[in-house]
Protein 1
Amino acid sequence: MIARISQPKSPLGALLFTLLALFWCGYVAFPSGNPPACATSGCALFRDVRILGVSMWWVGGTYFFVLALICLRGFYSLAWWLARTALLIDTLLLLIMLFSAPCLDCLVVALFFPLIYLCLRPLRPGNMREEAGSKRMLVLSLWVGLFISNAAVATNEMMPLWAIGNPQNKSVRVFFSPSCPYCRDALVYFGPSVALYPVVEREGDMQAIIRLEFLLAQGVPMEEALRQSRDPNAPVPAISPIHYAVRSLQTMRNKAAVFRQGHTSLPLITINGMPKAWLEQVHPAPKGNEAAQPDTTPLTPAAEQELWGSELGQCNSTTEAPCP
């Protein structure tokens, strides 16, 4: 009878991952910490989350510190129970992030939970090793699925939308289609200095977008560039098939961004901040020695109609007129 050689049981793996996770939590939670990996909106969102008034990152750091001490003292059954509980909590957190915003910092530290759990499994006492394998695999499979989903969403968020040229004023963003007349009016009004995000709505838009990008790069005025870009007889600048495929994907992502904001028509104009012309309506210029007083009077229906118009000019892929 051949005796089975038992594998060495050492807490070094779990201890190493615990210390790395502790370092990361402290790095994120420290007041001056600004990890370069923080490139998603969820980073700022979850960095401010507090549990009983304490930052979530300090709570996590305390957990990993206590877990390291328990491993050093040799209480492996307690360490494994804590690791399993933390894995369940982290699975719930991944689910919350999937429906809110992915946090890249959180995904980094999340990697350590299953690693610590798997490293501590062989160190459990014999009477705790009868855990049902199906339940264990269910939790790990759920964690893996949620982690991959969050990583995919975070990757998509880190890929910037494509704007034509090099906009100077990124506070104003205009999503437009060359075949939409209201979009063209918006482009003429704002000019090339704002962030212009092209969207393909109709056949021929892609060629028009490529022409518009080329013409604006040559310094052609916006109104003339729009006219030339929509000329079906105008030549399309020579670009490689790969460049064309990349531009097609970028315009598709721009269109997806419009849909994600709950809109189906163009132009979509977003402004980060309060335009000066609107501020002057709230804070009119002082007359003589009078101090400027904010005008808090609500807009009358007539004034609101003058500001916004009776209806907004919009186009979409199903509009027959006035979008030819």
Protein 2
Amino acid sequence: MTDKPSTHFTKQNQKEMESRFQQLESKSKTITIWEKGKSVREKFSSMKFDKSQMALLLSFDETGISNYLNSKVLYAFNINGVNYFGQGELTPVANNNYKLICNGDLFKSERRENFRLLTYPHYESYIQIPATEEEYEKSNVVSFQTKMSETSLFKNFLKIVDDKDTSAKEGFTKFRVLDISVSGLAFQIGEIEKNYLEQQRVLKPVHIYFNEDILIPAIEIRYIVPLIRGNGSAYKVGVQFLDVDTTTDQRLGKLINSAMRSFESDFEDFLK
């Protein structure tokens, strides 16, 4: 039995693809192109992005003619330490340039052991999701044990888990982040919140606090699993970020990398 790959690939949506390709155009990045099953990798430089055709105009960084003309190819590029992989078709154009038609999917890759940061209990990090009093009232039922509404129970729970919850933005509810990466995070909830979130798929927008406030256009709930706790029911919610632009992606990456370097420094101090 083979080990699972340590690299996780996250599919980019249309808006995210366009953002990445525009970044390539502005910085003239190197793109590596090859054919599946072939060992030869060829280097190209990005020149221009044609949004209407979802195509990149490229110049060939090597002598001669590309081996992969009019072929379905795989390609890869790097933006600020994050690797992207895609599928497309390479065709020749005028002046010895090439067009990469990006008609396949684009994926962002991250190595789990390098990019996922455990934030709790080391860092004060929170996520604020859009949830109003009216939304909680919609599923308001009476508990026969306490004679309290679930809305009231929810408010009491917030006081227990975080007595600073007054810092939550109006119309939002704040939860403690357990771990975070450039593509998503996990946070902790209780039984009452679970009943509400199980009915949701996409929430937008959300705010993340991790040394600074970061606005995420939308998140998709990927799983809700139980956490082992001795004092009651608790659950871990895993979410994926959606529609994140390049600037926000870079901010997240820098914050996570900075925190990881801090851990390395702490370990060096510990060994002294």
